[in-house]
Amino acid sequence: MIGVNYGRLGNNLPSPYESIELIKTMKAGKVKLYDANPEILRLLSGTNLHVSIMVPNDQISIVAANQSVANQWVRDNVLSYYPNTMIRYILVGNEVLSNKDDQSLWYDLVPAMRNIKKSIDGHRIHNIKIGTPLAMDMLQTSFPPSSGEFRLDIPRNSLLIPLLRFLNWTKSYFFIDVYPYFSWSQNPSSINLDFALFKGTQMYKDPVSGYVYTNLLDQMLDSVIFAMEKLGFYNIRLAIAETGWPNGGDYDQIGANIYNAATYNRNLVRRLTSQPLIGTPARPESTIPTLIFSLYDENQKEGPGTERHWGLLLPNGKPIYDIDLTGEISEAEFSKLPVPKNNGPFHGKLWCVLAKDIVNEMDLGQALEFACKRDGICDELSPGKSCYQPVSIVAHANYAFSSYWAKFRKDGETCHFNGLAVQTTVDPSRGSCKFPYVSL
């Protein structure tokens, strides 16, 4: 049963009612919320959708420290809707162990899970599993899969083993956010694209386990399994809390396109819904509950372009490509996909300019001030310098954005500026005013 993540970081998105209707139309089996939104939980009442709700990261510590707070959280967010709303998972936090800057939160994770579990047990609720979604970056090594091992900075005895012991004791799932796109896009010369999209004939044999792999997702999942086994846990089930492929991105983001996104998600659904079940080489014929990220393109997200292009639907609710979450529709029945044009690295020059000519001047002024705070970025915008004319906030912002991005892209800065900027291949230079650029 394939589900979707209900991402809401966008503007002008369909209403919760319309969104639930869209999810039902898509024949999803599950929906995962990143909170416990009361309106959405009410709208899910009476549907057949299995629902996952979340204790946000900023509430973990107080839930961990006080059983009465955990009890109140369960009363407010579970008992108010259950059982008419089919809440089946409570996820405590989101990728908590990826945040190395707040390690105190790490140690509150398992106590919070225990308190939530104690509370639902007190109400004799036995069909809700408690877990926490973790990212692949919690592994120290993941290739070959048999070498899978958790990061060495995550304490074994005081954190990892209690977490795994809790999941094992409660017969819950190890929820993993797993994105073959990132593994492939960071190593496109060593990982075959078709292998990442479930469509290749390439096979890889693990030199230690002897397992044969035909796709990248199975390798990544099995590396988690091997990491758990190294700590003595052999039977904890896996669930995929997030997976998917971006349908678009920036010029310098290889392979982010509609063709690859549709291919990955369609093949993923077929593989996971096949009968008999396939599982993975380390766990053949196993059921893997899976949620695709995400329902919508989230156009308000920060970061590189791919961050805003994981959706199955546009922000207006229209499908980006055909997909069937039941796995029953054949590829031949889908509409033809656009030919991918960026499966290889981009070569050329890129500038960073305003996304549109008419913008909120206050927002633009703040972005311009931010860019020009860094030494040397806006020197050419000073009176008498080559880019001073024309004296307009739009012209100056265009230069500042390109100058800032060209200098700091290598440090991880993106051409976004709160949604005001986009990459372009068209040189915006004018006369003697030469715009800095990124050359790839």
From TrEMBL:
<dbReference type="GO" id="GO:0005886">
    <property type="term" value="C:plasma membrane"/>
</dbReference>
<dbReference type="InterPro" id="IPR044965">
    <property type="entry name" value="Glyco_hydro_17_plant"/>
</dbReference>
<keyword id="KW-0732">Signal</keyword>
<dbReference type="InterPro" id="IPR012946">
    <property type="entry name" value="X8"/>
</dbReference>
<feature type="domain" description="X8">
    <location>
        <begin position="350"/>
        <end position="435"/>
    </location>
</feature>
<dbReference type="Pfam" id="PF00332">
    <property type="entry name" value="Glyco_hydro_17"/>
</dbReference>
<dbReference type="Pfam" id="PF07983">
    <property type="entry name" value="X8"/>
</dbReference>
<dbReference type="GO" id="GO:0005975">
    <property type="term" value="P:carbohydrate metabolic process"/>
</dbReference>
<dbReference type="GO" id="GO:0042973">
    <property type="term" value="F:glucan endo-1,3-beta-D-glucosidase activity"/>
</dbReference>
<comment type="similarity">
    <text>Belongs to the glycosyl hydrolase 17 family.</text>
</comment>
<keyword id="KW-0326">Glycosidase</keyword>
<dbReference type="InterPro" id="IPR000490">
    <property type="entry name" value="Glyco_hydro_17"/>
</dbReference>
<keyword id="KW-0378">Hydrolase</keyword>
<dbReference type="InterPro" id="IPR017853">
    <property type="entry name" value="GH"/>
</dbReference>
<protein>
    <recommendedName>
        <fullName>glucan endo-1,3-beta-D-glucosidase</fullName>
        <ecNumber>3.2.1.39</ecNumber>
    </recommendedName>
</protein>
<keyword id="KW-1015">Disulfide bond</keyword>
